[in-house]
Amino acid sequence: MSAPPTPATLPEEPENPPGVHSVWIINKSGGLVFRDVYADIAPIDTNETLRLASMWHSMHAIAAQLGPELRGELPSETDGFHLHCAQTPTGTKLMLTCAPGTFADHDAGQAVLRTVRDLYADYVMKNPFYEAEMPIRCELFEKRLRDAIDAVNGAA
Asked: Sorted alphabetically, which keywords does the UniProt record give (predicted)?
């Protein structure tokens, strides 16, 4: 039987790139309707992505019951990334993941989420061909969102 690995023999984790890594939109039922990646991070397979979205939806619902002040926005921070979340009045959750230190404070992350919400309202919800609660396939939304995130990442 071999000895457990020591800290000196463990492989180093790759450094997370700075800036916003991804944007997720989860419908009120907990289904992932949009996800796009804006940084060179390790890929997540489709099934794992769907499980993470559903799990975050459930955690958000539990936290909202524990404290009403958490009902709309729920930040989560780890050593590797920060997750910012905002909920629309209709129950849709907007999430973004970013590197630690991307935003000076929680309010700056929420400001980016407000931009995402505004783009979602303007280019998705006002699209006569979009069916609510279904995956988002709107080229103009994706382009405007990429431009907004690139602006944030350029400033980071």
From this structure: Endoplasmic reticulum, ER-Golgi transport, Golgi apparatus, Transport
Question: In angstroms, what CA-CA distances link 103 with 74, 82, 86, 119, 156?
Answer: 15, 10, 16, 20, 8
Q: Which pLDDT tens digit goes with each residue over 105-150?
A: 878 888 999 999 999 999 999 999 999 889 999 999 999 999 999 9
Give per-residue pLDDT as tens, 44-85: 888 888 888 888 888 777 777 776 665 555 567 667 788 888
Distance CA 134, CA 26 (A): 10
**Domain 20-155 sits in CATH 3.40.50.300:** no
Query: Domain ranges in the chain?
Result: 20-155
Spatial neighbors of 86 by CB under 8 A, at least 6 apart, are 72, 73, 93, 94, 110, 113, 114, 117
With a CB cutoff of 8 Å and minimum separation 6, the contacts of 127 are 138, 141
